[in-house]
Design brief:
Elements lengths: L1 H13 L3 H6 L2 H5 L3 H12 L7 H6 L4 H8 L1 H13 L4 H18 L8 H12 L7 H21 L24 H14 L5 H21 L11 H12 L12 H20 L29 H12 L4 H13 L3 H5 L6 E4 L2 E6 L8 E5 L1 H12 L12 E2 L2 E2 L2 H15 L6 H14 L4 H8 L13 H7 L4 H7 L1
Antiparallel strand pairs: 1-2, 2-3, 4-5
Helix pairs in contact: 1-4, 4-6, 6-8, 7-8, 7-10, 8-10, 9-10, 11-12, 15-19, 16-18, 16-19, 16-20
Length: 482
């Protein structure tokens, strides 16, 4: 106690009070003696002073333990919630330190912080540019994200944390695009966002931004979409065909070219229908402009390889690895549909169990028959589910929704163990469909199982064995064609 009083007295004599400390420059704050920095840490933890992310990145202080002494009851409730959602004990302390960081910057009590404050401060730490601070900034951001997760399940915040990507801001993403073109295309995207899913709007925004930048560089005489001519689009098609693709491929595929042209055509036709002043004056993209798309057969696993994969998955030590691969391989779900399953997805109809698949890629939901073994796996997963979770999602770990990357990692581990080449989750869907057709399932039944809107999507699974042996489609295929 005497030592604490001595430190406080020294701080008061040399610095003053909290306002005087806040007004010191960063270097002077960092240059204070250890005893006086300890008092500053207590001021931050108790809410008597505020600081900056830069100070917390550079100061050798331990804010979390002091914050615990200032808020013991909330620390106990925080740890209890973290435990109930199954958070790794090692992350509980880091999450608490993340919350202390937010409170030290905002000057708020732990019960008063908001989602917006936590997200903004996470972004600040992620944006650390100094080489010696990047790793620490990332770890602090992760701690804040986990703190937000705990507060969400605690009932204090309405939103769980989301992954913070690094896309340009809506304004900054259009830098380099001619102003009038930028205004028109962004207005179009705002209108599109009213009726399309965010992922669809983001995809179209990427294509339209690229087209806008192309015009700025390659066709500077075009000041608005109304200035476009057929020659401009023909030049764009030629340019697009030789652009390098992701992953090191020499050029984008014909399918990708077709998708980008379709997005442009949809944009031009809609704004013409809406009679916008900056709409193109004529039809610019014709049917013959689209390259003939490649239509490769589905990449499926043969029966022997599929069996080896399932044997490897069933021996996996992680419960999620086992259940994810089993369900994907035996239901044909898309990975997005699998991850969107809810805790009440299993329903009993008559004497059998079915899996209700939520609205997915094609905006339709459906029921898929569930094998008793899969029903047992899901029951075991639900029984082990932490009781404190807030949210309807079935697949959660450490209080967070499981991601596509986690599913891919599970599949990679199983294929490595089985000594197989790389397998994607969607190949499991193709494998189930191919096996079903080879065992006599009708195309109509398979379309219903896979959630296809029309049979043209299902025809690619026409019996490859019979086609290979006879050169003729099977009976179901001939009947449909007739």
């Amino acid at each position: 106690m005497c030592g604490a009083r001595t430190r406080v007295r020294s701080f008061s004599e040399n610095v003053g009070g909290p306002p005087e400390w806040e007004q010191l420059g960063l270097e002077r704050q960092l240059g204070l003696p250890v005893a006086e920095r300890t008092v500053a840490t207590w001021l931050l933890a108790s809410g008597r002073a505020q600081t900056t992310p830069e100070y917390l990145l550079r100061a050798p202080i331990f804010l979390g333990p002091v914050f615990s002494r200032c808020h013991p009851r909330f620390r106990e409730a925080f740890a209890d919630t973290a435990g109930r959602i199954g958070m790794d004990p090692a992350w509980v302390g880091r999450s608490w330190a993340g919350l202390a960081t937010v409170c030290a910057i905002t000057g708020k009590a732990p019960t008063a912080v908001t989602t917006a404050q936590m997200v903004d401060i996470r972004k600040t730490f992620l944006a650390s540019t100094r080489q010696d601070q990047q790793q620490r900034g990332y770890l602090v951001s992760m701690g804040i994200s986990r703190a937000q997760l705990v507060l969400f399940h605690h009932g204090q915040l309405a939103d769980a944390p989301r992954k913070l990507g690094t896309p340009p801001a809506p304004e900054g993403g259009w830098v380099g695009v001619t102003p009038q073109i930028s205004v028109t295309l962004r207005r179009y995207l705002d209108r599109l966002a009213l009726v399309r899913r965010p992922a669809t709007v983001a995809q179209e925004a990427s294509v339209l931004r690229q087209f806008g930048r192309y015009l700025t560089v390659q066709a500077p005489e075009v000041h608005g979409l109304s200035d476009l001519t057929r020659a401009h689009l023909e030049a764009y098609r030629a340019w697009l065909a030789v652009q390098p693709a992701r992953g090191g491929a020499p050029a984008v595929t014909r399918n990708t070219q077709g998708k980008r042209l379709a997005i442009l055509r949809g944009c031009f036709e809609r704004i013409a229908e809406w009679e916008w002043d900056d709409a193109p004056r004529s039809r610019l993209i014709l049917r013959d402009d689209f390259p003939v798309p490649d239509r490769p057969l589905p990449r499926f696993l043969d029966d022997a390889v599929a069996a080896r994969l399932l044997v490897s998955a069933r021996a996996a030590p992680a419960p999620f690895d086992r259940i994810a691969i089993e369900i994907l391989a035996r239901t044909g779900l898309r990975v997005g549909e699998f991850l969107d399953l809810t805790v009440d997805a299993v329903v009993q109809i008559g004497s059998g169990y079915w899996l209700r698949v939520p609205l997915g890629k094609l905006h339709n939901d459906r029921y898929v028959p569930l094998h008793p073994q899969l029903k047992q796996l899901i029951d075991e997963w639900v029984a082990a589910r932490p009781t404190g979770l807030t949210g309807k999602w079935l697949w959660m770990q450490n209080g967070r929704r499981i991601t596509r990357a986690r599913v891919s990692a599970a599949l990679n581990r199983a294929t490595d163990t089985a000594g197989l080449d790389h397998v994607t989750p969607h190949q499991l869907r193709h494998t189930l469909a191919t096996q079903a057709i080879n065992r006599g399932m009708s195309l109509e039944a398979l379309a219903a199982l896979l959630g296809h809107k029309n049979l043209s999507m299902t025809l690619v699974y026409a019996n490859p064995r019979e086609l290979h042996q006879t050169g003729e489609p099977n009976g179901s295929f001939r009947l449909l064609a007739a």
